[in-house]
TrEMBL record, chains A, B:
<dbReference type="InterPro" id="IPR036038">
    <property type="entry name" value="Aminotransferase-like"/>
</dbReference>
<dbReference type="InterPro" id="IPR001544">
    <property type="entry name" value="Aminotrans_IV"/>
</dbReference>
<dbReference type="InterPro" id="IPR050571">
    <property type="entry name" value="Class-IV_PLP-Dep_Aminotrnsfr"/>
</dbReference>
<keyword id="KW-0456">Lyase</keyword>
<dbReference type="Pfam" id="PF01063">
    <property type="entry name" value="Aminotran_4"/>
</dbReference>
<dbReference type="GO" id="GO:0008696">
    <property type="term" value="F:4-amino-4-deoxychorismate lyase activity"/>
</dbReference>
<dbReference type="InterPro" id="IPR043131">
    <property type="entry name" value="BCAT-like_N"/>
</dbReference>
<protein>
    <submittedName>
        <fullName>4-amino-4-deoxychorismate lyase</fullName>
        <ecNumber>4.1.3.38</ecNumber>
    </submittedName>
</protein>
<comment type="similarity">
    <text>Belongs to the class-IV pyridoxal-phosphate-dependent aminotransferase family.</text>
</comment>
<dbReference type="InterPro" id="IPR043132">
    <property type="entry name" value="BCAT-like_C"/>
</dbReference>
Amino acid sequence: MTRRFALIIDPVDASEERADFAETFTVVDAAAPALSVGELSTQRGDGVFESIGVVDGHAQEVIPHLERLANSARLCDLPVPHQEQWRQAVAVAASECPAGESVIKLILSRGVEHGPTPTAWVTAAPASDFTKVRQVGIKVVTLDRGYGLDVAERAPWLLLGAKTLSYAVNMAALREAHRRGADDAIFLSSDGFVLEAPTASLILRFGDRFTTPAPTGGILHGTTQLSVYEHLAENGLDAGYDRIPASDLPRADAAWLVSSVRLAAPITTIDDVDVPVDHALTSELNHYLLSPRD
Amino acid sequence: MTRRFALIIDPVDASEERADFAETFTVVDAAAPALSVGELSTQRGDGVFESIGVVDGHAQEVIPHLERLANSARLCDLPVPHQEQWRQAVAVAASECPAGESVIKLILSRGVEHGPTPTAWVTAAPASDFTKVRQVGIKVVTLDRGYGLDVAERAPWLLLGAKTLSYAVNMAALREAHRRGADDAIFLSSDGFVLEAPTASLILRFGDRFTTPAPTGGILHGTTQLSVYEHLAENGLDAGYDRIPASDLPRADAAWLVSSVRLAAPITTIDDVDVPVDHALTSELNHYLLSPRD
């Protein structure tokens, strides 16, 4: 998955009036030097991002992603991105994506140290092939996230609701999962509640009810989870938000990690305990998630 | 504080045998593009760093910083940096520093996504002028770090002992401190113990005893704190490591935040409670910290 295309967004040029933002973008070689060593994204992980799935050149759920980017920016005291400017940047990037699945990444960095403005860029790259993972499923382990469920509200400087570039812990959790022979992880709060995966949301089914941890307590509200919930509701299914004790996990009748690029990955084991896989529903969910959606 | 000088370290060229690493470094324009958008430092804050103070061209405490960089790398499953190669890189960067105070920053990133090696670079820049801060002192507020004191040992994937590039929370804590009319912050554990500042260590004095939070519980062992302790010991003073309840803070007879570039900043208030300032000792500490040290 090499980045094949990248463009830099002019951060000072986000006036409401102009319709031709695309003319202000600078296309850069994704493999060539484009950022200076003074970039605060690189020095301090100081910025926010989004990853958008692209199917046959159609960028999925663009507005929900841009809304979450704006929310992350607000939580980090960054200038709120101009939605129309970024929408056009995504459209330019999507037009460079070939048939099949790709990923567009949006980055809003605090900019160069002591510089006047943030830095912003968009990249596009072919996605890894997740076809088999979507069918065969993934093994997951639970890992303590270290925070109590109520800390996000009490300590907003922990940025728990923001999708920041400071993802070293998320990556370390994935490495720990691999060390334990699993494919992915589910974070638990220090007080024993289910949260989310390092780069995905968790959806569980207990009997006829689908549930996901309520997006408080610092859980990112997953755009793919929202899409799946919309689809489940359209099919008359019961899908809600709950406070889920970790001790409920072994009772799940089905479970998925859902995210923008891998889409719905059925979970086959949690901490080595088997979870039933609903192959028919998983296949249907991925078929839906691969259809063009706005 | 604009970065004036930067060099890239060849990560595959760290053989024990060669003495001429300096010939393998690539000097780059610190203001020009040098890093690609695929850099994992910039996409995920995935890497580790150190900041080294430089006084009149002499880089301070280089080996302790390189040892901590190596420890951070180990905690993050990164290739351990080759100490002699980095020592030479620091020497080259220091030779570019003018008279007065500068800062050298070392960065070891996981590299470009799906790339074969880490990326590593060193920058040098003039330091901000902290002369007045060292005399007048700083106001600090306490902020919850969200983690219990025992979490680091239980959950190493939280990388609490590593100095990673994922510093968004540290920066947000400083912004919160500024919003509250303070200059800096002291993090507390969720169970009420004193930890460290977002970019500095805390040293307190109670009566004749100097104390700092024990560098477990995910506290970074401060290189400047170690230097200060060495100096205090040479002067026959009692300096130790303790588990310090936050409720002890208002009783402190003196307090400092110490770090590699700002050095010893005396604390004048903690959460608006006055702390006595020992001007004579502070001045002596900074005189010592500004003297050439290895």
